[in-house]
Write a structure and sequence with these properties.
With 287 residues, the chain is an alpha/beta fold. It has helices at 15-27, 64-75, 86-95, 97-100, 188-197, 206-210, 241-244, 275-286, and strands at 2-6, 8-9, 12-13, 31-36, 49-53, 79-83, 102-105, 109-113, 118-122, 126-130, 146-148, 176-180, 201-204, 231-235, 251-256, 269-272. It has two domains: 2-148, Rossmann fold (3-Layer(aba) Sandwich), CATH 3.40.50; 171-286, Rossmann fold, CATH 3.40.50.1220. It has a six-stranded parallel sheet with strand order 10-6-1-4-5-11, sandwiched between helices. It has a five-stranded parallel sheet with strand order 13-12-14-15-16. It has a three-stranded antiparallel sheet with strand order 7-8-9. α2 (64-75) packs across α3. The structure holds flavin-adenine dinucleotide.
Length: 287
Amino acid sequence: MILVYAETFEGKISDVTFELLRKARELGDEIWTVVIGNAEIEGLGASDKVIHVEGERFNNPALHRYVLRKLIEKYKPKKILIGNTPIGIDLALGIMPTLVSCVDLDSKAKVVSYGGKVFVEVEFEGIYLINRGSFEPLKVDGEVEVEKVSIDVDKEIELLDVIKPEVDVDITKADVVVGVGRGAQNIVDLAEDLAESLGGVVGASRPLVDQGILPPSRQVGRSGRTISPKLYLALGISGAMEHVEGVKAKNVIAINKDRKAPIFRISRYGVVGDVEEIVPLLLERLR
Ligand SMILES: Cc1cc2nc3c(=O)[nH]c(=O)nc-3n(C[C@H](O)[C@H](O)[C@H](O)COP(=O)(O)OP(=O)(O)OC[C@H]3O[C@@H](n4cnc5c(N)ncnc54)[C@H](O)[C@@H]3O)c2cc1C
């Protein structure tokens, strides 16, 4: 059985969950989706079953790791799919020690619990943190079996405040992304104009985010977002592995003055030249 963790926000299932369901369906195993806290169970029809651990106190994601650990022990999933989001990473790290502290491993992992007094056998292949934008969401409305499960968690973690992330634009949902790299850092304004003329948004390589030129929400790549636009226009981006890992575009067009830049390997069209000369010409033509 594949266990999908449904991330929720303000009582709604988050979009990344539907991406996990798409992948889980492709894997062909039975899918159980876990919803923790009070949330509307909507669009989860691709699951064979929904496990719902209700309760106001479980609206606090800091408690989810304790709930999930108990569910893993109880249901022994083969795989666990979690969104690679701040909540997902925190959760995955929180359930990892269950595995790290195992004392034996064959088809099942023998895990030490309660300070070494109890051994629990856990059988699963792994936890997969899936980047947002990696798969087409699979949202299926309609009836799904919901099992309400009550889990006893003897931890009290107070949720003091929820600070909403400042996401100015969601680059994972854009059809056109104009990527700005170190070679185009002087023409970010022009890149914004270009993105606007093409009905798209601006993304960035990590150095631009590290320098504070663009916010983290714009970063494409391993430690940023995975984008799957129809068109990715890469300006002055070398195409380092960590960057292209986040590019699942149907078409890539790159402009780079180095004809050997690796970005050209994933590009449908390439322009060898200076972005500071080419982008103004392109804008003029588009206008
Ligand atoms: C653990 C880890 C995670 C990482 N995660 C990410 C990530 O999520 N996203 C990411 O982007 N990077 C990530 N990186 C960094 C990555 O390895 C590269 O350093 C980074 O992608 C390079 O960014 P860049 O292409 O903008 O810059 P550079 O590699 O410096 O490339 C600049 C390019 O611009 C070209 N150029 C320069 N001037 C011009 C001009 N006037 N006109 C046209 N072309 C020009 C150059 O020929 C060059 O190809 C990560 C690294 C590590 C170690």
